Amino acid sequence: MEHYDAIIIGGGSAGLAAAVALGRSRRSVLVIDTNKPRNARASHAHNVLGQEGISPQHLLELGRSEAEHYGARIVTEEAEHLTGSIEDGFTVKTDTSEYSSSRIVLATGLTDDLAGIPGLREAWGVSAIHCAYCHGWEVRDQAVAVLGVGPMSIHQALLFAQLSSRVVFINHQPNVLSEENRATLDKLGVPIVESRIARLRVNGDGQLEGVELSNGDLVDAQAAVVASRMNANAGLYQQLGGQLQEHPLGTFIQVSEMGLTGIPGVYAAGNAANLGAMVMAAAASGTVAGAALNADLAISSLNSELNKMHA
Ligand SMILES: Cc1cc2nc3c(=O)[nH]c(=O)nc-3n(C[C@H](O)[C@H](O)[C@H](O)COP(=O)(O)OP(=O)(O)OC[C@H]3O[C@@H](n4cnc5c(N)ncnc54)[C@H](O)[C@@H]3O)c2cc1C
């Protein structure tokens, strides 16, 4: 079985940044990745300093070649089983192989669970959007329908009302709006439509043509803003006995400032550990986790040398 200093599971921004930090420290690194980043449906990634508007796949191609330049090996496989401990080392079984390592980085991202509105999946990442910083500028001044599906929806209305004066809030029944929520929307000048949404009318390119209500009326909108429930892809962490943290918007792996999880030797970075992390924050947390893991390995090999000398 091939052994590595570190196995990084997930090769998005977080995992590749960790791989660069570790590769530059002359660690042997394996990145196991299914290449399905969360923003795969988006044509451009914004708020990426120095690479503003780059395509998500191109950004990861650059990251892969940088990681490989420093010796990281990247395989397109799915990690299915994770066992072991810091004392005995870790074993990762993928769909085709088996590898071992001294340390693990979980950079597996999160899954966006979408409200069950017909058409939403087809429009997701194209004209059904969740993040003002990722897509807001692109829909400025457009007709925008915020779909009221949960606790994030009011916050989204607040941010998108800053970008367009043509925002409408469709309170998708049975979503409940408090009096305070209604007052907020009123102050923002955002009208409320009280109705269950029948479906998003979407063309073959994922472009929204309007939001169809349960009575058949069509709300004119070029973009639908909708929050997902965000759950960390953390099955492997749970296989090691790790517990997930609950958040009003989903679940995540709790980590220290340096990316260490509650399990010694196991680090987590990116959206798996921070539901709100955008591309640069995900990459930054990967760099931090990679650096912390490297120092952890350096200290533990120094300690074992000292123990041998004193034995
Ligand atoms: C539609 C959309 C648009 C967005 N636009 C922007 C934007 O413009 N700007 C911005 O800053 N942010 C944007 N984001 C957020 C951005 O996608 C995340 O910040 C970023 O992808 C997080 O990086 P990550 O490395 O944590 O996870 P990901 O990029 O999701 O990468 C996780 C990787 O792990 C792999 N993986 C998961 N489980 C396994 C496994 N068991 N075995 C092997 N591989 C596995 C996946 O295939 C994937 O390649 C957007 C998000 C969405 C949904």
Write the layout of secondary structure elements.
Blueprint: E1 2-9, H1 13-23, E2 29-32, H2 56-69, E3 73-75, E4 79-85, E5 89-94, E6 98-106, E7 110-113, H3 120-123, E8 128-129, H4 132-136, E9 144-148, H5 153-161, E10 167-171, H6 179-188, E11 192-194, E12 197-202, E13 208-213, E14 218-219, E15 223-225, E16 229-232, H7 235-239, E17 245-247, E18 250-252, E19 266-268, H8 279-310
Parallel strand pairs: 1-2, 1-6, 2-3, 6-19, 8-15, 9-10, 9-15, 10-11, 16-18
Antiparallel strand pairs: 4-5, 5-6, 7-16, 12-13, 13-14, 17-18
The structure holds flavin-adenine dinucleotide.
Distance between the termini: 31 Å
The small-molecule ligands in this entry are: flavin-adenine dinucleotide
Major sheet details: 7 strands, mixed
Q: How many β-strand stretches?
A: 19
- Assign the CATH superfamily of the largest domain: FAD/NAD(P)-binding domain
Fraction of residues in helices? 25-40%
List key phrases describing it.
single chain, 311 residues, alpha/beta, FAD/NAD(P)-binding domain, 7-stranded mixed beta sheet, 5-stranded parallel beta sheet, 8 helices, 19 strands, binds flavin-adenine dinucleotide
